[in-house]
Amino acid sequence: QVRLAESGGGLVQAGGSLRLSCAASERTFSYYPLGWFRQAPGKEREFVAAISSSGSSTDYGDSVKGRFTISRDNARNTMYLQMNSLKPEDTAIYYCAARRSIVLARTDYTYWGQGTQVTVSS
User: Which end of the chain has fewer CB atoms surrounding its CB within 10 Å, N or C?
Assistant: First the structure.
């Protein structure tokens, strides 16, 4: 079983940047597509971004496209989310997840981290 742990969340002013990291416990991490999701209070969980196992393909939710960048370093069993031009509406708990499939997708993720809080002040 893959264990995932997010880090890098915090409080930032609107227009600022943060980089989230997601560290995995297993080397099998490199076989799976990975994703970032977020959930704001009172709202449903939202897809943010996904990356293929090799890192060659990515996908972004419309609300973050052009501002966020997903990447991964399989040698370090780590995935990243660079978040720029942050807005108050980006405030949420951010989760990383791994999908037991070779297909990059926005749903059906198997393994989840505990989440890291991102708060953007106006």
Answer: N
Distance CA 104, CA 72 (A): 14
- Within 8 A by CB and 6+ apart from 9, the residues are 18, 20, 94, 116, 117, 118
CB atoms within 10 A of CB 9: 18
Q: What is the pLDDT along the chain (122 residues), one digit of tens a residue?
A: 789 999 999 999 999 999 999 999 887 788 999 999 999 999 999 999 999 999 999 999 999 999 999 999 999 999 999 999 999 999 999 999 999 988 999 999 999 999 999 999 99
Residue 52 tokens read as: 């293929």
Residues 35 and 48 sit within 8 Å (Cβ to Cβ): yes
Asked whether the beta carbons of 99 and 4 are under 8 A apart, the reply is no
- Distance between CA atoms of residues 67 and 77, nearest Å: 24
